[in-house]
Amino acid sequence: MICAALLRALVLTAVLAAGVMPAACLDDNSNLLPGKATKELPPELLSLLQEKKMPKHSPIILRIFKEEAELEVWKQDTSGHFEILKTYPVCRWSGDLGPKLYEGDRQTPEGFYSITPAQMNPNSSYYLAINTGFPNSFDKANNRAGSFLMIHGDCWSSGCYAMTDEQISEIYALARDVFVGGAPSFQVQAYPFRLTPANLARHRNSPNLAFWEMLKIGNDHFETTHLEPKVNVCNRSYVFDAQAPANSPGPLVFNPTGKCPAFVVNPKIAPMAQEKQRSDAMEYAQLVKDNAPTTSIYSGFDGGMNKAFLAQFPGRVRLAMVMPYASYLPQLPPIPWVDNDGSLANKWFGTMFAKPVGCDPAHTGFLSSVLAGHQC
Predict the structure, then answer these.
(1) Sign of dihedral through CA atoms 102, 109, 171, 115?
(2) How deeply is 88 buried, as exposed, middle or buried, from its count of CB atoms within 10 A (0-12, 13-18, 19+)?
């Protein structure tokens, strides 16, 4: 039996909840964990892993899409790349499209999060739970607050991504097995919707557009490589797959609220991501030129639910009928992703050409800057 960090963390969570002393290893204290937390994956999912050549303990990435109400599990196969394992319909999420800003706003988070063994809760009141880790360093740098934002069961949400108990049992087991395999963490990517040109064009009037364009950079890195994007934060912004320029005197140091160091995007990733960004920017520009329809900035509903569950849980979506969410959601201006040195979005685009951060064109928004060919 492996006495791994995950098992120690799970035991610690369990014993703290029970009010007893922590144990050193699961070997001697397996009774401290509820059966639901140690349950094996169902046979059909084990067969699917084998069919897709995905080792049971290989890393995973979770990708969540609010508007589509879907949670994808991607798992690393024997080639070292991530491929889709299974898509779960989300039973319930709360808030509206857009990031979480403050405690009590009922918003589910958006962004890139790292899950460690300590964030696995085997004793959740919502069957099983995985803490997203909100606020991460990006959220803190932007003064965003909140706590206990989970992926859990019970199909009820107040700022969380709620699944059914059966779904979270599988997701929890997949995550647990990653840690048993020795990985220190896995990544969660939470998005407002699939970041396609068509969806961005529909939501182009949203004050969150610049934030979503920033998330799209990490999304594009993943979708073009099927490798986990390396995530850092500087100048209150995400940066992805950054590495030191040639002849750099030392390793990169990122300060979430400080100026970004000179960096380049990993040259093995940059060309593929750049091509996708150019293609998407052209499609987006054509949609805008054609005056493609836009959608309301705020839905007026408190979250959403995948249509697969509408008949099963008919009363769990229309909460806004008695508490209109859009009436109290603050009308926030766009976050200015620009510092004294110019547009960070354009700096990121410049790094796609393996040039250090430093020079920049005028701020025009990421998709527009890609289309115009701006670079350092």
Answers:
(1) negative
(2) buried
Q: In terms of Cα–Cα distance, which of 61, 91, 72, 70 is closest to 162?
A: 91
Is 152 a residue of the active site? yes
Q: Which domains does the chain have, with CATH numbers?
A: 5-46 (no CATH), 48-115+126-191+299-330 (2.40.440.10), 195-297+336-376 (no CATH)
Tell me which of 251 and 57 has the higher pLDDT: 57
- The single residue listed with the structure tokens 């003064």 is 143
d(CA 12, CA 120): 11
User: Is 57 in the active site?
Assistant: no
Q: What is the pTM of this model?
A: 0.82
Where residue 128 falls among pLDDT bands split at 50, 70, 90? very high
User: Which residue in 91, 160, 234, 260 is the catalytic one?
Assistant: 160
Cβ–Cβ < 8 Å for 152, 160 = yes
Query: Quick one: which of 370, 330, 317, 258 has its CA closest to 99?
Result: 330
Region at 220 (left for phi over 0; alpha for psi -120 to 50; beta for the rest): alpha
The strand pair at 161-162 and 150-152 is best described as parallel
Q: How far apart are CA 14 and CA 122, in angstroms?
A: 7
Of 3, 25, 57, 152, the catalytic one is 152
